[in-house]
Design a protein that fits this description.
This protein is an alpha/beta fold. 47% of the residues lie in helices and 17% in strands. It binds pseudouridine-5'-monophosphate and manganese (II) ion.
Length: 316
């Protein structure tokens, strides 16, 4: 018999998510927690104003009645709930990576840092035992996807991850009807919050409609609870801006077309498209898109806080 060889030098196993003490205490006690992504801070909002937005979003979750858990990977460690110093780092580093699910394993293994997208935030939140997540807009099917195959991993992750995401629809640069079709194929549950009009991120109406609406945080929580007992995968709650808080729809159509043309002209592709386009929009609209972007994230964070509170109140 061959002598048993000592194993190869061990590569340390990937770290389980590290929970902040506030998040850990809340989860242990069954109190409501809402996960927040860091890509929208690091790659969606301009520095240095993104740092104040990070605090405002966490405060909005608290106003809704839950503990905020912003998620990012720092030096190879996935963190669920960030300290003020860690939020400083996420918001200040211009070279921070953008980590979707497939990138997480590399960052963890090689000790890298990065902001988490909807897909990787959802995965880490679910691993930590968090059921509710707030963001701005989901990724989805890009216009031209028939040629480029550019479809966000957000969709496939939501088809497998038992979590409720509050958003203002999908990113406005996407093909919205195609994204809704893909969510149907992937069996992602989608409900409007007090509307069957699917919101268009900066604008209240994307032009697409939904089959279902929920009328309260309790109903939204009940849909997630029912889904969990039934099939893997998540629930999207689409929360539109009120008409008087949206971006002027005419300005919207003009600046989006302009930004997409600029991205095509500059040859920007793949995961760089969204940061490029958002920066362009904020500039050509003279900050109008930025103000609306922050407002819709705050509204989603507060609603997510209420839904998490309703979920925590359900009998287990
Ligand atoms: N929507 C925004 N700003 C953003 C994003 C979405 O208004 O920064 C981010 C989210 O983190 C989302 C990601 O998960 O873009 C999707 O990127 P991609 O299309 O490259 O998959
Ligand atoms: Mn993409």
């Amino acid at each position: 018999m061959l002598p048993s060889r000592p194993g190869p030098p061990a590569v340390p196993p990937a770290r389980a998510p590290v929970l902040s003490s506030e998040v850990a205490d809340a989860l242990t006690a069954g109190r409501p927690v809402v996960a927040l992504e860091s890509t929208l801070l690091a790659h969606g909002l301009p520095r240095p104003d993104n740092r104040a937005a990070a605090d405002q979003v966490e405060a909005a979750v608290r106003a809704g009645g839950a503990v905020p858990a912003t998620i990012a990977v720092l030096d190879g460690v996935p963190h669920v709930g960030l300290t003020p110093d860690q939020l400083d780092r996420v918001c200040a580093d211009p070279d921070l990576a953008k980590l979707a699910v497939r990138d997480l394993s590399v960052a963890l293994a090689l000790g890298r840092s990065g902001a988490t997208t909807v897909s990787s935030t959802a995965l880490l939140a679910a691993a930590a035992g968090i059921g509710v997540f707030a963001t701005g807009g989901l990724g989805g099917v890009h216009r031209e996807a028939a040629d480029t195959f550019d479809e966000s991993a957000d969709l496939t992750t939501l088809s497998r991850t038992p979590l409720l995401v509050v958003c203002a629809g999908v990113k406005s640069i996407l093909d919205v009807p195609a994204t809704l079709e893909r969510m149907e194929s992937l069996s992602v549950t989608v409900v409007g919050y007090r509307t069957t009009t699917f919101p268009g991120f900066y604008v209240a109406d994307s032009g697409s409609t939904l089959d279902w609406a929920v009328s309260s945080p309790e109903e939204a929580a009940a849909v997630l609870a029912a889904r969990r007992g039934l099939a893997p995968g998540g629930v999207v709650v689409a929360n539109p801006l009120p008409d008087d808080e949206q971006l002027d729809p005419e300005l919207h159509d003009r600046v989006i077309a302009d930004a997409l043309a600029a991205a095509a002209q500059a040859g920007v592709r793949g995961k760089a498209v969204t940061p490029f386009v958002l920066e362009h929009l904020h500039r050509v609209s003279q900050g109008a898109t930025l103000a609306v972007n922050v407002r819709l994230v705050l509204r989603n964070a507060e609603l997510a806080g209420r839904i998490a509170a309703a979920l925590a109140a359900l009998p287990r």
